[in-house]
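Notes taken during the Thursday session

The instructor put the following on the board and asked us to keep it in front of us for the whole hour. The protein is SGNH/GDSL hydrolase family protein. We were told not to look anything up and to reason only from what is written here. First, the residues (411 in total):
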Amino acid sequence: MTRPPLSHPIAALTLALTLGATARHACAGERWITSWYAAPQPAWDAGFALPMNVPAQVDNATLRETVRLSAGGPRVRLVFSNRYGHEPVRLGAVHVGPADDPDASRALTFAGQPGAAILPGATVTSDPVTLPVRPLSRLAVTTWLPAPTTVASFHWGAQQTVRLAAGDATRAGPFAESARFGGRLFLNAVLVEAPAAARTVVVLGDSITDGNGSTPDADRRWPDVLAERLAPLGIAVANAGISGGRLARDGMGRSALARFEQDVLGQPGVTDVIVLLGINDIGWPGSPFAPGEPPATLDELAATYRQLAAAAHARGVRVTAGTLPPFEGALAGTPYAGHYSPDKERMRQQLNRWIRTAGAFDAVVDFDAVLRDPGHPRRLRAAFDSGDHLHPGDAGYRAMAEAVDIARLLQ
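Then, after some discussion, the predicted structure tokens were revealed:
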């Protein structure tokens, strides 16, 4: 039988259907999960209590960021976000490779092109690149921003250092660093190709989940330690914590309820979320962070938790809630004093009691019981305290991760 010319409508339709079936077949053989994540936050102005500590603008410069994956796989894809931007962000070139050998990096493409423009409010996902990565391995991501780029969407802190070099430094050779700062710029996620049984646990939280108080650039946050426990089981951990994050109200970022769809339910492979939020809802009102804000109420916090659980359960995602750690004396003697008070402590106790007994969650992890001083339960145990009486240090974060019942995550 002679095939009709491509200009023939039947031939064109046949070719389109054939190519579409081929593409669907190729995509059907792929499965991706989130192996690393950094939740975006909107930029704030100089009137806020904390500085952003990142450049207001980057122009013809290259960023080098190191990430530690949780799960591994034969191929990777990178996701970049401009969630809170008001103008496109242009990626001129992006390379990714082993952190201990950046010269072995691979150039990424986006829909077959070497760069991409991230529209305001959007993300871009790279094409897959063959780069076999092991669980818990570190990658170096090198991104050239060729045009003046306003930093309107970023990730604050995270105990991670970004290195900056002038011009296009994505190619092999020494990275001529001209500046460095903490946080993340535009890099949002690393996806890995994974077998059918692999999946992702998302951890949703605030600065305690983001790792404040842990050793910088050492991956010692409690989600990092949880990832070490789950890696042999083929389960990834995505850290969706943001410093200043709050449950029911906006803080240094949108409220948990506002960002839940993008930061949790939208993650490829997610089956579980662990939520540790509420201490900023309680501590911020009346402090330098929110001096005129009325105190949080138990009804407000409980209703928000129930909404998160309902949204997760509607998508088949299980929810584990963590009790709030002690915080007596939090930030005392600093410009941010006022985070703690006896009334706020009573609210923490009420919320923890509700979390333990409400039956709203699939599981509860009692971080309060793990971290509190047995002789003075309103404060952190000294060995677990980073020194500011709010954030645990490395030992405290390890104790938190070890308190998670991973058997429940395997069910």
